[in-house]
Amino acid sequence: MERIAARLEQMLRANPGRVDLYQRYQAIIAEYNHDKDDAQIQRVFDDLLKQHEAMNVEERRYVREGFANEKVLAVYDLLSKDKSSLTKADIEKIKAVARELMETLEMRRLEMGDLRDRAAAQAQMKAAIIDRLLTGLPEPYSSDDIELRAEVVFAYVQQQMVSAAFH
Question: What's the distance, CA 157 to chain centroid?
Fold first, then answer.
């Protein structure tokens, strides 16, 4: 169980959109702690194995989606979250935006250095995110939606930079 929990924490740091895997894991553990007869223990163990396989599938999803790494997948997830009425063309546009945005952000991050201490660098990074989202996201995204998603993507980028500095 500890290995699954540690792996799940690592996956959540890489992509916060995977919270559903964490919630399922917590439900399995709560169920285990509730009843402890042999049949229940076996069922919980089987559920944990299924959860582990779901984590394997999720870790490989970035390849299936056509991305170079999990960070691009995370940005794609953040941009497409709560948008169920997207067409296939819209999805492809969002994938292109995610790819281009991560390339741009990585170049800017290298140019600007540490964002935590520099308000001007943070403002430039946020502006780059908003510009890319405004020019690339499909029609179903409103200006307010773009601003909100830009904030979420910026927070993710900051979190990744802090995490990279400590790991």
Answer: 10
